[in-house]
Amino acid sequence: MSEVQQRKKIILSGIQPTGTFTLGNYIGALSNWVKLQEEYHSAYMIADLHALTVKQDPIKLRQQILSAFAVVLACGVDPEKSLVFMQSHIHQHAELNWVLACHTQFGELSRMTQFKDKSAKNADNVNAGLFTYPSLMAADILLYQADLVPVGADQKQHIEITRDIATRFNHLYGNTFTIPEPYIPKIGARIMSLAEPTKKMSKSDENTNAFVTILDKPETIVKKFKRAVTDSDMKVCYAEGKDGINNLISIYSTATGFSYEQIEKEFEGKGYGDFKKAVGEAVVELLRPVRENYERLIADKAYLEQCYQAGAEKAANLAQCTLKKVYKKVGLVMK
Ligand code: TRP
């Protein structure tokens, strides 16, 4: 086997530091990051530059970036195993973004569904950054020559455009970038709203009972599950049309490791009240270590700083290596 085939694959993902993270972010993204770091060379970043595409309050944003960094570590991402950093600390992201933007067509960016959604939601601030968001995301991925990019289904289109841009670049200038694949985890990939279970759980939901945040207190978590919307059928079983119960079963299954069959059996003949209480308690236990770690970490600013400085140093070396290649290939004079 050649060296290339043998090398450990590189995985890269990012999360925007906007608001507190939900149970959906934990199950769908962060808990997977923790598992993946055992198997891959993994790089995880706080996408703070991406957060600027919508209006932010500077004081709040600074807190949220640090808090997001602490959450990532609190979930179990280990800075000894993974590269963890803030996007804005690596100036190469903004630089590669420029070169890639010059190789991305207006037409392809116009087709991005996230751009259409976000510009409808922020009609008073349809800025150029929102439009070129995918080329910055492509830079994030391509700088580290990532093979796999764990993302939610809503980000799949951005991975596709990244592949298109990278392929185009490789064609024009010779092999430069690894073509990344999306990595969409199946289990628990879509945790739904507790209030409207046909909608994805979102931290921006106006109804705070619709989502559980990673840092919610145990009493709050139990209360929110007690209020979760179900149906009038009264039977704990996974079936079409039972969106609320299906969502709770999938959450309970991820929190406990029980299969759907085991869960149906456990609650045979019992009411939804008992089931919702059990799900709430299981989620409390699932998130307890995360919340405790978070409280410890956020109080230790010196440690956090030490981690992101070390992460930045390592990330910058990798990023610079790719950027230099790119500048050379497109014909810039090297100093
Ligand atoms: N756009 C992603 C999101 O909103 C976050 C992100 C930024 C990202 N850069 C990335 C994800 C690179 C994966 C790889 O969820």
What is the distance, rounded to the nearest whole angstrom, between the alpha carbons of the first and last residues?
38 Å
Low-confidence regions = none
Sequence of strands across the biggest β-sheet: 1-2-3
> Total strand count, please?
5
List the helices and strands in order: HEHEHHEHHHHEHEHHHHH
Name the quaternary structure: single chain
Question: Can you walk me through this structure?
Answer:
By secondary structure, the chain is mainly α. The protein is 56% helix and 7% strand. The protein is built from 14 helices and five strands. The strands form two sheets. A three-stranded parallel sheet has the order 1-2-3. Helix 4 (58-74) crosses helix 13. The mean pLDDT is 95. Bound molecules: tryptophan. Residues 12-16, 47, 50, 137, 140-141, 149, 151, 155 line the site of tryptophan. Tryptophan is lined by residues 12-16, 47, 50, 137, 140-141, 149, 151, 155.
